[in-house]
Amino acid sequence: MTLRTNPIRSSNQPCWFIVLTTLTIAFSAIAEDPKESDYYTITHFGPPAEGVTIESGGIVQMGDTGKIAVCTRRGQIWTAENAFGDPANVKWQIFAEYLHEPLGLAWKDGWLYAVQRPELTRMKDEDGDGRADIFETVSDIWGVSSNYHEYGFGSHFDKNGDIWTVHCLTGSFTSNTKYRGWVIKISADGKATPMACGVRSPGGIGFNAAGDVFYTDNQGAWNGSSSLKWVKPGSFQGNPNGNVWFEIANGAIGDPPPHPSYDEGPGRADKAREKIPTYVPPAVVLPHGKVGNSPTGVVPDLSDGKFGPFAGQTFVGEQTHSKVHRVFLEKVNGMYQGAIFPFLEGFDSGNIGMLLGKDGVMFTGGSNRGWGAKGGKPASFERVNWTGEVPFEIHEMRAKSDGFELTFTKPIDKATAIDASFKMDAYTYIYQKAYGSPEVDKLNPTVTVTGVADDGKSMTIKVEPMTKGHVHDLHAEGLKSSEGIGLLHNVAYYTLNEIPTK
Amino acid sequence: MDRKITIALAALFAVFHLAHAEPPEWSGNPDKEITIKTLPGMMRYDTPEIVVEPGAKVKITIENPDDLEHNFVLLDQDKDDKDGQKFGELSFQLGAKGIEMNWVPDSPRVLAKTGMIGLKASTEVYFIAPEKVGMYPYICTVPGHSLLMRGKMKVAKDNFIVRDVTWKLFDAKGKKISKLADFDGMEPIKTGKAKNNLISLQPANQNKLRNNYALIFEGKFTAPKTEVYEFLLNSDDGSRLAVNGEEFINNDGIHPPKTVSHKEELEKGEHTFRLGFFDGGGGAKLSLVAKTKFLGSIPFSADQNAKNPKKKTQAPILLTAANPGEAIVHRTFVGGAKPRGIGVGYPGGINLVWDADVLNLAFVYRGGFMDVGGHWNGRGSGSKIAGFDSENLSHGLPMQELESLDEPWEPFYDKTIKYERDKENPEKEITYTDRHPDYQFRGYQLDKKRFPTFMYDYKNLKVTDRFDPTEIDGAEALIRKIKVEGDAGENIWMRVLNHGSDEIENGWIKTAQKVWIKIEGVEPTTRTASGMKETIVPIKGGEEITVTYKYTKAIGGKVKK
Question: Are the C-beta atoms of B228 and B260 separated by less than 8 Å?
Answer without folding.
Answer: no
